Amino acid sequence: MVISTGILLDLLATYHNIEISRNGLCTDDYEWMDCLGENPEYDVDTIIYEVEGMLDGPACISGYRHVWHSLQLKGYQVPRQVVELL
Fold it and tell me: Where do the structural domains in the chain lie, given as residue ranges?
Protein backbone atom coordinates (compact mmCIF):
# COMPACT_ATOMS: atom_id res chain seq x y z
CA MET A 1 0.00 0.00 0.00
CA VAL A 2 1.37 3.40 -0.98
CA ILE A 3 0.47 6.45 1.10
CA SER A 4 0.99 9.88 -0.42
CA THR A 5 3.16 12.27 1.55
CA GLY A 6 0.33 14.82 1.70
CA ILE A 7 -1.97 12.37 3.46
CA LEU A 8 0.81 11.32 5.80
CA LEU A 9 1.53 14.96 6.73
CA ASP A 10 -2.18 15.56 7.36
CA LEU A 11 -2.43 12.48 9.60
CA LEU A 12 0.64 13.50 11.60
CA ALA A 13 -0.73 17.03 12.09
CA THR A 14 -4.30 15.97 12.92
CA TYR A 15 -3.78 12.97 15.17
CA HIS A 16 -0.30 13.50 16.62
CA ASN A 17 0.08 17.29 16.58
CA ILE A 18 3.32 16.97 14.57
CA GLU A 19 3.94 19.72 12.01
CA ILE A 20 6.80 18.98 9.61
CA SER A 21 7.42 19.74 5.95
CA ARG A 22 7.64 17.23 3.12
CA ASN A 23 11.40 17.84 3.02
CA GLY A 24 11.51 17.01 6.71
CA LEU A 25 10.11 13.58 5.93
CA CYS A 26 12.81 12.91 3.37
CA THR A 27 15.80 13.37 5.67
CA ASP A 28 18.04 10.59 6.95
CA ASP A 29 16.02 10.43 10.15
CA TYR A 30 13.08 9.07 8.19
CA GLU A 31 14.56 6.13 6.26
CA TRP A 32 11.16 4.39 6.40
CA MET A 33 10.00 6.68 3.53
CA ASP A 34 11.34 4.03 1.14
CA CYS A 35 8.41 1.78 2.08
CA LEU A 36 6.02 4.50 0.90
CA GLY A 37 7.28 4.33 -2.66
CA GLU A 38 9.08 7.66 -2.55
CA ASN A 39 12.42 6.15 -3.62
CA PRO A 40 11.84 3.35 -6.12
CA GLU A 41 14.60 0.77 -6.59
CA TYR A 42 15.68 -0.21 -10.09
CA ASP A 43 18.61 -1.87 -11.84
CA VAL A 44 20.30 0.66 -14.12
CA ASP A 45 21.69 -2.01 -16.44
CA THR A 46 18.21 -3.45 -16.98
CA ILE A 47 16.78 0.00 -17.67
CA ILE A 48 19.57 0.76 -20.16
CA TYR A 49 18.87 -2.54 -21.93
CA GLU A 50 15.13 -1.78 -22.10
CA VAL A 51 15.69 1.79 -23.35
CA GLU A 52 18.12 0.62 -26.03
CA GLY A 53 15.56 -1.95 -27.18
CA MET A 54 12.89 0.74 -27.42
CA LEU A 55 15.13 3.07 -29.40
CA ASP A 56 16.64 0.44 -31.73
CA GLY A 57 13.70 -1.91 -32.17
CA PRO A 58 11.32 -2.20 -35.12
CA ALA A 59 8.67 -0.10 -33.36
CA CYS A 60 11.15 2.65 -32.51
CA ILE A 61 9.81 5.32 -30.18
CA SER A 62 11.29 8.72 -29.52
CA GLY A 63 11.18 11.16 -26.65
CA TYR A 64 12.17 10.40 -23.08
CA ARG A 65 8.62 10.85 -21.77
CA HIS A 66 7.31 8.24 -24.18
CA VAL A 67 10.15 5.91 -23.17
CA TRP A 68 9.48 6.60 -19.47
CA HIS A 69 5.77 5.87 -19.90
CA SER A 70 6.53 2.65 -21.79
CA LEU A 71 8.83 1.56 -18.95
CA GLN A 72 6.02 2.21 -16.46
CA LEU A 73 3.66 0.09 -18.53
CA LYS A 74 6.23 -2.72 -18.36
CA GLY A 75 6.31 -2.41 -14.56
CA TYR A 76 9.57 -0.48 -14.07
CA GLN A 77 9.36 2.36 -11.56
CA VAL A 78 12.12 4.71 -12.72
CA PRO A 79 12.25 8.46 -12.12
CA ARG A 80 11.61 10.42 -15.32
CA GLN A 81 14.85 12.36 -14.82
CA VAL A 82 16.85 9.12 -14.96
CA VAL A 83 15.24 8.16 -18.25
CA GLU A 84 15.96 11.64 -19.59
CA LEU A 85 19.65 11.30 -18.69
CA LEU A 86 19.89 7.87 -20.32
Answer: 5-36, 44-85
